[in-house]
Design goal:
about 35% helix; 8-stranded antiparallel sheet; 8 strands; alpha+beta
């Protein structure tokens, strides 16, 4: 499962569109320059993870956000509750929406799992491919990250 520059641009567009559909104020989300990380990962307060499988290869995509940004998203969609269960549901739903939209672009051979929602400490146990594309997404004073980790990896991060 390889990712071309054009496909990375498509992920960026898909992610921004997902936020913009939530509320007009998210049209101000600014994707920053994607980077490649090797072995290191960024995890914020909440992370939504989706497993991907295509033609015998697998990987993960995850969206990680600070709690304040999640609360802003909850407020924008009219949700009054701010407990951890709601926050975890939202981050999982956002990750799932990004991947479902990506599946429309990459075709039906791209199999995606149900989302897994993790807190910062649970995220540290994820098994990820050693090379990752990291897309910072700025909104107001917050930065979230869409991370695309494609390729086979048995190495556990602890």
């Amino acid at each position: 499962m390889e990712l071309t520059e054009k496909e990375l641009e498509k992920f960026i567009a898909i992610t921004c569109r997902c936020f913009q559909k939530l509320a007009p104020e998210f049209s101000a989300i600014v994707p920053e320059e994607p980077t490649i990380q090797v072995n290191d990962s960024v995890f914020l307060d909440f992370t939504g993870v989706i497993d991907l499988h295509q033609k015998g290869k697998h990987g993960k995509i995850y969206l990680t956000m600070p709690e304040g940004m999640i609360n802003d998203v909850l407020q924008a969609i009219g949700e009054d509750k701010r407990d951890q269960e709601i926050q975890r549901d939202l981050i999982g739903e956002l990750a799932s929406t990004v991947c479902s939209n990506a599946r429309e672009h990459f075709g039906s051979t791209l199999a995606i799992s149900l989302p897994t929602s993790l807190n910062r400490f649970e995220s540290l146990k994820l098994s990820l491919a050693p090379m990752r594309f990291v897309l910072p997404l700025k909104l107001k004073k917050y930065t979230s990250y869409l991370v695309i980790a494609l390729g086979n990896s048995d190495k556990k991060k602890s």
